[in-house]
Amino acid sequence: MKDSNFLKENNGRQFWHPMTSxxxxxDNPPKIITRASGVRITDIDGHExxxxxxGLWNVNLGYSCEPVKEAIAAQLDALPYYSTFRGxxxxxxxELAYELNSFFAPDGMxxxxxxxxxxDSVETALRLSRQYHKLKSEPGRTKFLSLKKGYHGTHxxxxxxxxxxxxxxxxxxxxxxxxxxxxxxxxxxxxxxxxPERLAQLCAAALEDEIAFQGANTxxxxxxxxxxxxxxxxxxxxxxxxxxxxxCSRHGILLITDEVITGYGRTGAWSGAxxxxxxxxxxxxxxxxxxxxxxxxAVMIGGHVQEVFENNPSAKIGHGYTYSGHPVGAAAALACxxxxxxxxxxxxxxxRGTQLYEGCLALQEKFDVxxxxxxxxxxxxxxxxxxxxxxxSPIGAEVAQIVQETAYAHGAMVRVxxxxxxxxxxxxxxxxxxxxxxxxxxxxFAAI
Length: 448
Description:
The protein is of the alpha/beta class. The protein is built from 15 helices and 16 strands.
């Protein structure tokens, strides 16, 4: 392997990183991570820190999950790859589909369609929802609704329903027929409403209004994250998701929950839909399905959607990926699902999530730069930084970077996204490690 100086000098010169400018990778070289174990990562200089990012929301079981590593190695020996396109399948994909359908049965799911990741899962759900309505002789239902501040990946379909201009503007024009309603974001919303329950009602009313304006018979689906993740960890009031479910059902609109982040225990419940007590028509999953050890995803299909496809002889699914149902990914997912349930990670996610959330609220009392703290539902917490409490003006990027760098020096990798610090550590996080993250953040805020 090349030495550390070579790697540092060549990083930005050899490849482009996602979600940043090529020049930024040269001007501000990233941390080069070379080892990881448990909830800790080590960089090329030997500096070890707690990973409060959890890879990218996906390393729920930590970096040394032996059952998953063993399953991957064994599957590579048995069958490293075979296609699941028409005419062939593999044993582990069939077993995984069976286990996932059982796991998501309380959410009303009955079938699985395998993908290569979260963006693929969103794209699949959007396409299947249009096909569903065509099979029901409603070909005019082609439009999609979503929430502002929502994030649904980077394919053209996902970018089109994304509710954040950062992922849209450079690639427009995007897919037509996508419309956005206000998110139940208590700290910032167009209604200037600070009561979460009242805000949920206003956002639901905005959804009703958009449906009336567009015409319900033109809308295929509503897609939303049960808790908005990349947009800044925005949990709605508990009444919001049930209202959306009722509105969609009444108008014949499919409801897709994007569970790429919230699935498999992150929220302290086994799914975001279950957290709010609803049953969607489809669920997009990925990330923690393999703990980040293999690119893999699954779209879960609800019972009545399944029936429309399976009871129609013309319902050929003209969609799929070379790696759909990849046997190594399926083996990793089977091991992850078993370990996730064996450890019952939802209990620790809830406990440590409360600890982090309350710790961040205590930091808010100490530092004026903290405008808002959001969380309280599992290991999903965000700190929104402002330069002025009254005007809520976002903090400058250079100041946010000081917080991030100082926290790293004091033992925690934290993720800065705009004015937000987003915390999404592995679900096996210990009480001691949660305190370590809070201590590093304290040092970061003290530095500014």
